[in-house]
């Protein structure tokens, strides 16, 4: 249904903006309410179109949030994709920017310092957990175990010893993997 009125597009934008602020854990956590809104409540797309939208976007390379643009495309073409993606990205992005600016101006305040100090172990734990999830398939394979563990060790030493952007280490891992080193 590509012929949504301007009122419907504004309604779609508003709904996705609200969901953006509720999407702790990523936009996919609000997919059930997106389904309720675009399939059940408004009937703009079918169950199959909704499910296919998520499956196609998740199978494609790129950020996982792109599934909202595919849903929007199926609802109202290019305007729908723009509305759903903007609605999903703008509120949470603006909130993070505002909070970051506010915290940067108050970085010496005891409450901000306590929050930052408390977030450090949480962030480190999440990074380690993500690193392990990504490395585990390679560590399990006997022929790749030594290379994977060596690459993990190099990454840890480099991050602790030098002030490198993590992207350089990601690039190193990509080059080693592409060369068949792991």
Describe this structure in words.
The protein has 2 domains: 6-105, no CATH class; 119-178, no CATH class. It has helices spanning 6-22, 31-41, 47-59, 67-105, 110-140, 142-161, 166-178. With 182 residues, the chain is mainly α.
Q: What's the quick description here?
A:
This protein is 79% helix and 0% strand. With 182 residues, it is mainly alpha-helical. α1 packs across α4, α3 crosses α4 and α5 packs antiparallel against α6.
Layout of secondary structure:
Layout: H1 6-22, H2 31-41, H3 47-59, H4 67-105, H5 110-140, H6 142-161, H7 166-178
Helix pairs in contact: 1-2, 1-4, 3-4, 5-6
Quaternary = single chain
What is the helix tally?
Answer: 7
Q: What structural class do you assign from the helix and strand content?
A: mainly alpha
DSSP summary, beta strand count: 0
Shape: flat
Unreliable segments of 5+ consecutive residues? none
Largest sheet: none
Write down the Rg: 21 Å
**% residues in beta strands:** under 5%
């Amino acid at each position: 249904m590509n012929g949504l009125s301007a009122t419907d597009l504004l309604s779609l934008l508003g709904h996705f903006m609200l969901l953006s602020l509720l999407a702790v854990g990523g936009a996919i956590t609000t997919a059930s309410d997106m389904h309720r809104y675009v399939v059940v409540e408004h009937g703009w797309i079918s169950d199959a179109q909704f499910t296919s939208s998520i499956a196609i976007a998740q199978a494609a390379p790129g950020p996982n949030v792109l599934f909202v643009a595919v849903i929007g495309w199926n609802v109202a073409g290019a305007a729908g994709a723009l509305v759903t993606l903007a609605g999903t990205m703008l509120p949470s992005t603006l909130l993070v920017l505002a909070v970051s600016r506010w915290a940067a101006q108050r970085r010496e305040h005891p409450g901000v310092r306590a929050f930052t100090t408390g977030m450090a172990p949480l962030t480190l734990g999440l990074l380690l957990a993500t690193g392990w999830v990504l490395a585990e398939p390679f560590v399990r394979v006997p022929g790749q175990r030594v290379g994977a563990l060596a690459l993990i060790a190099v990454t840890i030493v480099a991050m602790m010893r030098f002030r490198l952007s993590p992207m350089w280490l990601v690039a190193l891992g990509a080059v080693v993997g592409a060369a068949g080193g792991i």
